[in-house]
Amino acid sequence: MTMNFVTKIRAKVNIYASRKSSNLFDGSYKSIYQGNGLDFENLREYIPGDNIRDIDWKASSRSGTILVKRYVAEKKHNIMLVFDTGKKMTGHTKNLEIKKDLALNAGGILGYLAARNGDNVGAVYNRSGLIQYHQFRTGLHNIERILTIFDRENFEGGKTDLEKSLEYLAKNIKRRMVIFIISDAMGIRDVRESTLKKLTGLHDVLFVQIGDADYTDGTAYNLDKDVYIPEFITGNKKLIRMEQETRQRLDKENAGKLLKYRIISTRIDKEEEMVERIIELLEGHRYAGNR
To answer: What integer pLDDT is reported at residue 26 of this predicted model?
Structure first.
């Protein structure tokens, strides 16, 4: 299999990693497991940002240097990519990039990092009411296969049902997972709290929110009617104010829902910020687990 997607993703990751410490970059992914299923390996000097719970105070006192316990994963982990689908994902972000493309690349980066770490990666999404499930496998060829099949899906006439995909996981997958849900603001809003409660009770859940275009920025497109929204509507000051208030209210409600279930999230509005946002997401999960 020609790994077109993986090759592009590797280039994005390498560009970012070249600007950062390689230890910090690799640790960002591994940190999502800190405190879960890890075996003690040895001691090393403390680095700002390390979990203070890992400090070995006796060894530090003897050496005169702050030392922390170093851990390694005792087994492969299960990474589940959950893609939102439907016609809304063919819409644009503020940067006029297609939301489905950003979702694809976000999942690809997460999958690439997991595969590089030797972990199992699976995926699930809803295609016009039918669940499409990719079972857990290792390796970069698995990531390429998932991305290639998802890229070929046509969501033009399909309705989204993220809830159905999450219910499928809650009912059918009992092994412990790290679940990355890749959706938008409306997707977060529509996920039932009862489903989040089930998932977060057993698994780690993180949200990657793909940003939406503004309805009133002059380039808004009505997907249902297949026409651009007229400028006399998008330029209306009252509508602009109403849109801003609606978005602020939705963001506040979503933030409250995610906070309630201790779910870390990030928002991606454009391709060029994607790797950095994903690394921030993983780091955010690490620090949340340390509190």
So the answer is: 62
